Amino acid sequence: MLVAERHEMIVRLVNERGSIRVSELSEICNVTEETIRRDLDRLEEAGRLIRSHGGAVSVSDPQPEIPYLEREVTRMEEKKRIAKQAVAYIEPHDRIILDASTTAWYMAAIVPDIPLTVLTNSIKVAMELSTKEKVEVISTGGTLAPRSLSFLGPSAERSLDQYHVDKVFLSCKGIHLERGISESNELQALVKKKMINISDKVFLLADTSKIGVQAFTYFAALSQIDEIITDDEVDALTIRQLEEKAIKVTVAP
Fold first, then answer.
1. Which residues pair with 143 in a beta bridge?
2. Which pLDDT score, from 0 to 100, does residue 75 have?
3. Beta pairing partners, 175
4. Where would I find the beta strands (DSSP E) of the chain?
5. Residue 162 class from Cβ within 10 Å (0-12 exposed, 13-18 middle, 19+ buried)?
6. Strand 95-98 versus strand 116-120 pairing type
7. Is the pLDDT of residue 62 over 80?
């Protein structure tokens, strides 16, 4: 198989599946994993796919992210109430993560100016906190995702590996009782998975529109979540089912 033919096959497979691992491509194309990695690097440079940890994802995302400006006004009041409840858990000298969700941004706006270290992959969160003199802000860096105004990719994941925090506050696209926590694409999912892994306590910020949903990419089991903060539209049965799985559910007033 010629190099050009292999490249076309790789792009076709990535687009068909949404994402694929290096090991799979190596077996399908009958070449070494190192060769596949070089292929993926060249194809990313050409804008035909996006490299991810251990593989690649399609540039034609089957479940694209909603642009940030649109997410700002979607269920805004519920998100602001959830943010206010979440901020109550922050204590002086905490080391925390705020992800690139709009709810985390609402949190950043009302976090008191106290001694605090905040690690984030969000441009909006970093800018919001920049006016607070006692808050130390650390940005992950990485590849900018314009729709979410967030930093993603292997560089962002490697940056997170350097840290350990007390609490992480993050959102998601779906909470499913059997299938866990999910996101709209693999790059977002990989960063959020890393955030959970380096945190002592995990707070999931999710309005009721997320509950019962299975989005494109799984990134955490329900057992990895310590507390879900949601709005007052959540029903009693859902709360009971989550609490049976040892997850605390807090309804933001």
1. 152
2. 73
3. 181, 211
4. 19-21, 50-52, 55-57, 95-98, 116-120, 135-139, 143-145, 150-152, 165-170, 174-176, 180-183, 199-205, 217-220, 227-230, 248-251
5. exposed
6. parallel
7. no
Query: Tokens representing 220?
Result: 């955490």
> Is the separation of the CB atoms in 63 and 215 below 8 Å?
yes
Q: What is the mean pLDDT of the chain?
A: 90
Q: Give the pair of three-digit tokens for residue 96.
A: 């925390």
pLDDT in tens, 101-128: 999 999 999 999 999 999 999 999 999 9
| H or E stretch at 113 | none
Q: How high is the pLDDT of residue 74?
A: 58
What pLDDT, on the 0 to 100 scale, is given for residue 57?
77
Least confident of 70-84, 138-152, 189-203, 219-233: 70-84
- Residue keyed to tokens 């799985």: 245
